[in-house]
């Protein structure tokens, strides 16, 4: 245990005093999340597992069968949500053909040595967060001129898309992409896009200052340990958003001096550094999505965090009865869905357990209800931030993760424990 630290460079006021503003301060035009690339040691089986667990179809591949001797990459997709899984081949494969390991790589920023070191350090984890921008070259140039640590300069891909990278935090990169992609994709279990990601860092202040300077993103929300912590542990958190609030980055730090180690500190130690703690995926129908996912929980899918106690749902009708039907409220309790709302909309949430060997990265499934507005063409669409983040839900998640970590503590026995 260390001494207690202040939140966000001593400037945090907590959720109750936070005033929501949007100064439209982006340094370059940001459209939306495009994809998340995971680096791993076996892209084939990881992609298949995520596809099975989340109902995401294989959309593209690059491997030995396509002439790629550097890495295997598989892209799975549902709606606008794209996950890319990449694993390195042995460098001797390409060298046997008198080629450098990167000569046949389909991803120009791929580096064999860096990929292997990343996987050895972090295990299965997010390497790149791709954001679709109006101009990737401009985004890279402006961000670097404002202090971004460059990872890869702009490169034109075969399909004429432009890709560039700067570091986001730790070994994770923020990938800028200009993509001419107007296709629509089928939904299977109902997942339609990436809503936000949560990163864990040792210190909130420097990470937030860096990202605000690099991107121009504004402060969307903040939470202190008084808002979401328990009597045993806590964290501090701040949310940054793009102008259109379709790209939301949540940064969390641990607090010290509490009875239990902060779950953020546990994450940092098991992950061997900063990383993406979880990814929030939007569902068009969270009840449909969860019914499909839970069918597969015990057969290769994702397990879920323990639900809140029955008392959580006793007053749910009073809190959300004007938005959810009695049947939906009952489904929330049966499926363990958390419900919260702000002055604009309602947020439904549930969280999986970590999806790898380490107690690190996990998935959040959400549905936002409300905030429908009309664009210039008369088409109705939903604001990306509808329903906010839900302090009550955040607190319940924190408690759930704390209980999950307790279940991982060593038992005082040398015998094997049955599953």
List the helices and strands and how they pair.
Layout: E1 30-39, H1 43-54, E2 57-62, E3 71-78, E4 81-88, H2 91-95, H3 112-122, E5 125-133, H4 136-145, E6 150-156, E7 162-169, E8 172-178, E9 191-200, H5 204-215, E10 218-223, H6 225-228, E11 235-241, E12 248-254, H7 263-271, E13 275-283, H8 286-295, H9 316-320, H10 326-335, E14 338-341, E15 345-351, E16 362-370, E17 372-374, E18 380-382, H11 391-407
Provide structural commentary.
Its main location: cytoplasm. InterPro entries: 4OHPhenylPyrv_dOase, 4OHPhenylPyrv_dOase_C, 4OHPhenylPyrv_dOase_N, Glyas_Bleomycin-R_OHBP_Dase, Glyas_Fos-R_dOase_dom, VOC_core. Residues 32-181, 193-353 form the VOC domain. It is built from eleven helices and 18 strands. With 419 residues, the protein is an alpha+beta fold. The longest helix is centred in the last third of the chain and has 17 residues, at 391-407. The protein starts with 29 loop residues before the first strand and ends in a 12-residue tail after the last helix. Residues 1-10 have low confidence and may be disordered.
Task: Describe the structure using short key phrases.
2,3-Dihydroxybiphenyl 1,2-Dioxygenase, domain 1; eight-stranded mixed beta sheet; disordered N terminus; 419 residues; 25% helix; 18 strands; 11 helices; alpha+beta; single chain
Helix content: 25-40%
Q: How many angstroms does the end-to-end distance come to?
A: 32 Å
- Adjacency order of strands in the biggest sheet: 2-3-4-1-5-8-7-6
Structural class: alpha+beta
In percent terms, what proportion of residues is strand? 25-35%
Order of helices and strands: EHEEEHHEHEEEEHEHEEHEHHHEEEEEH
Total beta strands: 18
CATH topology-level name of the largest domain: 2,3-Dihydroxybiphenyl 1,2-Dioxygenase, domain 1
- The first-level CATH class of the largest domain is given as Alpha Beta
- At CATH's second level, what is the architecture of the largest domain? Roll
Number of domains: 2
